[in-house]
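hiii, so i know i said id send this last week but things got crazy w the move. better late than never?? heres the sequnce for the chain we talked about at the cafe, plus the structure i predicted for it. fair warning i was half asleep when i ran it
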Amino acid sequence: MYKFAFYGKGGIGKSTTVSNFSVALAEMGYTVMQIGCDPKADSTINLRHGKAKATVLDCLREMNQDLSLDQVVTQGYKGVYIVEAGGPTPGLGCAGRGIIAAMELLMDKKAYEIYRPDVVLFDVLGDVVCGGFSMPIREGYADQVFILTSGEAMAIHAAKNIGLAVDTFQKRGYATLGGLIVNQRNVKNEQERIQQLCQDMDCTVLGQLAFDPLVPEADEKHQTVLEAYPKSEAAQRYRNLAKALIAQGEDRG
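okay and structure toks below
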């Protein structure tokens, strides 16, 4: 089982990217589970065409110990298993609690043994790497971390912070840094900035996603690019990167 976590500055396009990876991997014949680790519960929205999704935290509040897996693990487009951790009422409680609850529930209920995913993708909120948001990389849930970034200053700053956290946990035997995924924003000297970032972090770029207007257009439809525009260059870029993810996982193994 390949277990990948995706981090990056808020708004860098993690959920869009991860959802397209999920579909690409499903097209390749893999059984995929995508776990949204954001209290907004919007990671899998394009896999469910904008329909409402019960979160783990909401279900726990309503059902407590009687909660069953099929109440929180559902299937979206291309049969991808989807989970949304959820969070507290805005302004109240700890946002990381939903992630902790989701991780513990999936383990306690033996979700991985029951659904038998070949690939698990964790889509983690922004650049927060403390508390519950660091669980995918500090508790052994994920094997590799990929950081989404661009050449923008704040995205690079967030990438460095995340890289420091991954390095800390890696020394304790947890997830390693698989590399960077560049979501190009066509800012000045973007490639030079990315090259410098790789040198500073001692890592490599797994792949780059060129800016393409079809991506936000697909988002507007609550669809992945692979569903909305399956023959487009944008869709092929996601497919190529999904293959690179698997190759990276095989190399690590």
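btw The radius of gyration is 17 Å. thought thatd interest u
miss u guys!!
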